[in-house]
Amino acid sequence: xxxxxxxxxxxxxxxxxxxxxxxxxxxxxxxxxxxxxxxxxxxxxxxxxxxxxxxxxxxxxxxxxxxxxxxxxxxxxxxxxxxxxxxxxxxxxxxxxxxxxxxxxxxxxxxxxxxxxxxxxxxxxxxxxxxxxxxxxxxxxxxxxxxxxxxxxxxxxxxxxxxxxxxxxxxxxxxxxxxxxxxxxxxxxxxxxxxxxxxxxxxxxxxxxxxxxxxxxxxxxxxxxxxxxxxxxxxxxxxxxxxxxxxxxxxxxxxxxxxxxxxxxxxxxxxxxxxxxxxxxxxxxxxxxxxxxxxxxxxxxxxxxxxxxxxxxxxxxxxxxxxxxxxxxxxxxxxxxxxxx
Length: 341
What we know:
Elements: H1 2-13, H2 19-36, H3 40-53, H4 66-71, H5 74-84, H6 100-103, E1 133-138, E2 144-152, H7 162-175, H8 180-188, E3 192-201, E4 206-215, H9 219-236, H10 240-254, H11 261-274, H12 280-290, H13 293-303, E5 310-315, H14 317-325, E6 330-334
Parallel strand pairs: 1-5, 1-6
Antiparallel strand pairs: 2-4, 2-5, 3-4
Helix pairs in contact: 7-13, 8-9, 9-13
């Protein structure tokens, strides 16, 4: 551990930014773009955020763009380091076989971090959707079509509020192997290796997403089924049998959720990030045991809407476009960076 902490101190406080290393990493990053642009799943991940959040910080890929990477210089990296390193709001989480009085002296070098306020850009809220649109990215000869169906919805992270409860509601729609979407598209139809849906939220944003890689020749049929399953769930809600199954499955799953050191560290990190009370898991368990069909039904009616949704399909245009035109939605073609063609 001592050698690891010495290395951390060196890299954190005394980094050696060299032109050779920068050039090598820049070249690797640019090569990475070429690879990702040949993979429909990677394209879908990048483009979906841009569709939902536009040209905001939330719509930007974590990998940047080819243009931004090409234009970066070593000085940009050095300036970013000197301008953004601070001890303010920094948190250190440690999980392992070590006592507090043993580890704290070894972390004394963190006191050398600059103590300055860093202005962080607050993401702008996305404009509300006015209609459903199909966005199509052409990947010629792709055997599968990557689906991303959903939208930004403004739902922020709340460990014991609507966000948590929607996670329970989504379990039977697309959060489990035995969910409606996966049983329909994988087990019954054999169109995919897996189909899933989720609500994702943080301090700034939230979205609902259905995702799957589906056999190209079943693209239009699968889209019909996805929209039907979501609409049916919003209209009729959960069944008593599904509530019972969901509660039983999640109680057993959560019992094993915090066993490893990494899981414990992640758990504590989340508590610090969102200022959660120490008993929030206990509160979640009470919510899980007590949640009812009327409560779940009201939530899915409120938050699931296929009348105004973004549909992103990444696949072989020649194969899938004719089937998509029958839906009557506007179809917008994009390139692999999410720009209009």
